[in-house]
Design brief:
299 residues, alpha+beta, Alpha-Beta Plaits, 5-stranded mixed beta sheet, 7 strands
Amino acid sequence: MQNKELKSLVTKLYDNVLSLIDTQESTSKEQLVHYLQDAIKVVEGIKNEDIKSGKVLFENPYKEVATSSLSSYEKTNTKFKKISEIHRKTLDQCMSDQINLPLLTEKFSEIQQHMSDEVIKANQIISKLSTQVKELEKKSNIDGLTKILNRRALDTYLSQILQIPEKQNFHLLLLDVDNFKMVNDKHGHIAGDKILIYMANILKKALRGEDKIFRYGGEEFVIILHNVNNTTCLATSTRLLELVRESKLIYKGTNLSVTISMGTTPHHENDSPEMLLNRADKALYKAKRSGKDKICSEI
């Protein structure tokens, strides 16, 4: 990777930090730290070819919705200021010696109607923006918790590579965190979430750039190992099991450690995504039944 490509990447990050600060009335140090931490995760997952092609983006699809929300808020706030001014002028008229009660009633009725209309418009905009956020969540390929690819992305990816012959030399691994419910029951759901995030980071760092990792659902993950035979797949799977087993997450002063069970299967000719996942699921079931913290293969 050339220095100019890295400089371009840093420039994009710098521009986005400035944009983040400019779009907020006040930005705390904590917000800046969180943004930079997220940016580091993005950089870690960037492929060299993406940097060369200029495809690296630090922004997310929610920015447009957030911008719309702020714009809508500003418009509504401006209108309420105008209504407040009308309200003030009406009160000033009431201070005169001669109070025109019918006129006063009419003025306050107008103010009330204006406020009611603006509240209705604001609620309609909020409803529309909420719908947009839900649609973005459905269309997003990134898991909100672990920041890795989600099941929707897995379905799309498998459908694509199964149509490309040169991409079909791969193994599919289905992983499950052992005794995850016990972790949640003993330490709480936040600890469980921390474990899943920690797991995702361990797996990302341990895999090659050409391999893919997805959150399949709950405490399950799917890994696609490209260009490996059965022996290499077993060696990689064993290394992942050992790495997770030996890793510890410190949460509220407590060392949390977990193990994983794994089912693996190679790709076969004429496989569908469902066939691959079903075989891996059968292998995972065997690993769980045989004592957990194990690997089973369905060949």
